[in-house]
Amino acid sequence: MSIENKTIDRAAQEMLRRTQADGVEVVWDRLEAQEPQCGFGTLGLCCRNCLQGPCRINPFGKPDRGVCGADAHTIVARNLLRSLAGGAAAHVDHAYDVLEALKKIAEGSAADYELKGEEKLKAVAAKIGLDTANKDKNTLAQEVAARAYETFTSHSSEPMAWLKYWAPAERIETWTKLGVVPRNADREIREAMHQTTMGMDADPVNLLLAGIKQGIVDGFAGLKLATDMQDIIFGTPQPVTTQTNLGVLKKEYINVVVHGHVPLLSEKIVQWCRELEEDAKEAGAAGINVAGICCTGNEVLMRQGIPSATNFLGQELALATGAVDLMVVDVQCIMPSLTNIAQCYHGEIVTTMPITKIPGADHVPFSFEEADQQAEKIVRKAIASFKRRDMARVKIPDEKADIIAGFSTEAIVGALSKVDESDPLKPLVDAIKSGAILGAVGTVGCNNVKITQDLMHVEMVKKLVANDVLVVATGCSAHALGKAGLLHPNATNEFAGEGLKAVLTVVGEAAGLGGPLPPVLHMGSCVDNSRIGDLLMALADYLGVNVKDLPVAASAPEPQHEKALSIGTWAVAMGIFTHLGLPPQVLGSDVVAGTLTGDKLESLIGGKFYVETDAKAAVEGIIEHIKAKRQALGI
Amino acid sequence: MEQILINPDRCLSCHSCELACAVEHALSKELLAAVLGKESTKPRIFVETDGETNLPLQCRHCQEPMCVNACMTGALAKDSTTGKVLFHQDKCVGCWMCVMTCPFGAIEQDMSQKVISKCDRCPDREQPACADACPTGAIRYTKVADFAHDQRKHYLTNW
Amino acid sequence: MAYLILGNSAAGIAAAERIRQIDKNNSITILSDEPHAAYSRCLTSYYLGGQVTEQDMYLRANNFYQAMGISFQPNQKAAAVNPDKKQVVTNQDNIYSYDKLLIATGASANRPSLPGIESDGVFSLRTMDDAKAIEVACQSGRQAVVLGGGLVSLKVAAALNQRGMNVTVLVGSNRVMSQNLGDTAAALVEEQLAHIGITVKKGTRPVSIESDADGTVTGVKLRNGDVYQADLVIVGKGVRPNSSFLKETGLVNGGGEPLKVNRRQETALQNIYAAGDVALTYNILDENYSYSAIWPNALEQGGVAGTNMAGLTREYPGSIPMNSASFGGVPVIAAGITQPRAEGYTLIEEKDAKGNYRMLVLADGRLVGFTLFGDTSRAGLYTGIIKSRKQFPSDQALWQKPRNYLSLAGISTYQ
Fold first, then answer.
1. pLDDT value of residue B159
2. A599 half-sphere exposure, CB direction, 13 A CA radius
């Protein structure tokens, strides 16, 4: 495969030429070595859930059942449910971690942190029915934490706490009818594991309903709860200007890269990089430069203006610059190959979490209680590593793009309120009603090595904004769009349709940008998809309709992780038309694939999956959907 | 001349070769299209096991092919340049004489069409689909001399 | 050096091709007593049944002889061989010299000496011309009687049935395919024949063929006096080697008996080889020569003869009796010893719920014969281990092995 077919990111291309010349194996090489990939796995037709297996179903004939008697539909549906439970578990565990941190901070046992998001704390507390008057923030936070904990471990069969507080009544009613209202997150994930063991559920439709439940768990106990807690601890993001792509690394500086997903670690690393600036200079560096990868990069980008180095597929290539002195990681999407690449070029890999260790990496256990001490230790390792760096082997691509990021829901409403202070959503709703804005699409999710890196994200978004569709983005999609210049106001003039451009200009100028807003609003990390959910719920509420009726869609153009599947399922459960740029491993069952993408599901829940691998066709499908929704709304 | 050569020690019985073979002989020649299009297709390679050893087996394209001797229509013929045992389906009448004589049991009967099917070494591919799909290198498409060399090396280095 | 091949079918063609592979220069001449380029005799019943066209029956491309540098002489039936002069005389009085001679003249259908056998409408099926003649004579809805219950007879019966004739097969013995099949398998085949509408009468003794005043066949009369009305009669009573022209050479006595050969397909006379239906076949099982006129043997023997004629040395590995047929779409394959008549053989058989029948004949833990009806898949695995003489721990062990290569032939023979 040519380098141009591997990635459209010019910095990544340059680094790929380097790894190729050096014979260093990276993710694209490993894909090639894996190809052709197992057809049974591709179709979801392999079952390893008991020791009588493994079994696989022949898509073209016999055997059409596994040893236990499970057929293709059962096996595919079970495998999908396990994946969804895996994705939900990742976000719920993330949320649990930040909740635990909140509690300890509020109790004073994590003294290295302080609660910076008092406004958010009050807003959350009010929303969940707590009396906020005359309470100091730590007391209030403890009360919020106690309520939040019920999301995971309640012993009742009542709807899950965070869902009960935030989900629209219409949704709860719909989900109740379908029997998919989660009781508590841990229980539902546990139940999914149980439900998919040997001799359990064989009904593919029942298994899919359980899958929808996992999506709802992810959305409320994972995404929403994590974002709320993170905002309470670190503050709610506001727009920042910064830069992205490998060109943000600086040759004369000590380069520390934070990679992973949870801001608890990365915030501390950023802080200590600033505090040890003088030590860095003593070591001969111009200073310490921090850059982010993946979602923890998005977290510090939004709150601290830390530039982002690259997205998921670029993580190895960042090391290939030879300029990264230390990469510190927490959880999720971390390639175990990083240590090999670091050995070939330069830099230390530091793991920090008890459930994410990599052979060959330096492990520094990270805890809330001793966060400062550990963060300092890690940054000092970076300084030491810098001293070992071979400057002759440093090669940083001269590629970086200016971006504006950090559009939390609050920030968007804030910007809109500059246009209409008394009724901030009105300008946006008016623009949608008038057709200046056709609709909105959230592009989210990963890179997938099977798709040319960033291509699908960028191609789709360029076409969407040209059609006056407002795009909001999170996760690796946001990184991809940032690298391609789409998180910058210039892109509004270059790519946006006339209607969209006019609206973005009015809002941008009112907000004091001296020009339009970018055509794509960077709303944060993957857990920050909940911000998109909040915005949609607010819009629906304002319009007096339901989320499922809005002229909007979701898209994961290059999905890779189980998390993408569970987020996508949450979106579908919210009633949103959800595009995937690559089929999940379900095509071995026409029942499962057909149900997920079928009109029946849409009629029951409002949303469905839409799989289209071609960017142009995908955009056409999405726009057709948006127009249908507009028509139904009579606008 | 390259042959499909098998190292049974490496076969894990994953049946990927069978699936890849079936896909290659589907009209669309593409997994997802074949499955979504509900195409009817069958493999010409079969993973056998006797409980201890696994063996992916297909037409060996014998030097002295019994099936070609037995074929009374000329549907099976040995190509002297490529060494392949070629099958011309339009000449096959389903007499099953080749099935009766193939000592490898590598010729399948398509009872609905009354013709045989067997490995054609994937004429549209550089490397047969089974060898391409084999994740362990149990099925290799290589020259006998190279294969033998590797086997000898393996034997000597594991002495 | 001149190679002369008498016979233009399986053995002759295989020999010519092999010679040409080894010897690119010297002349090869093939004489045929027929006008046609090489075609497949086995397909004559398929032609009759309408499954193949005449064009389909030709074995090689149109330019085969030219491309191979073979001089093909049609309508030249060998009349005599003079080993001293190394010459063959044909019934056209043409003389062909040779340095190496292959006798691959095949066999002809037996014509029992029944009264009325020369009547119009009485045929055998051996050649393409036979098939065409029968094609002209057969008429849908009319009566056909087939004499003989062997494989060829049944194939013709099925072909006539296919053409819409009402077919009765008169079998002398108590079952069809008595040379190939035991009672159970024969009964299964008979069921299939009945299923497609062919009547089989067993234990019958035709005594004469009845005809009308014009000499056109009207029926077949049995010893018990029954007369089976017939508009068409097919005589399928086995074949006889075409060897009578060799009387002068001493290779045969009266003619009609098969030629003796050694494993190099050499006859008793120097530079004269024989292969195919005119010769005896080395049988692996009894380690002796017997008559086994089947297509695969002819091809393989022709190849061996050709190799030796061209100066290399090659031995015929030997064969076993085997045959394959399908009636009503249900296949049956039998090979080796299927009806043991001596002590020391074990016969294991099984009919499954789907109507598949499997029968193995074993001796000393070795497979010596088998019959498969219905599920004939991978039958060659059995043929293979009969030929390899592979020994199993016990008869039962062999019987229980799944029908796959690894279990039956084993990896050691594979490597």
1. 60
2. 1
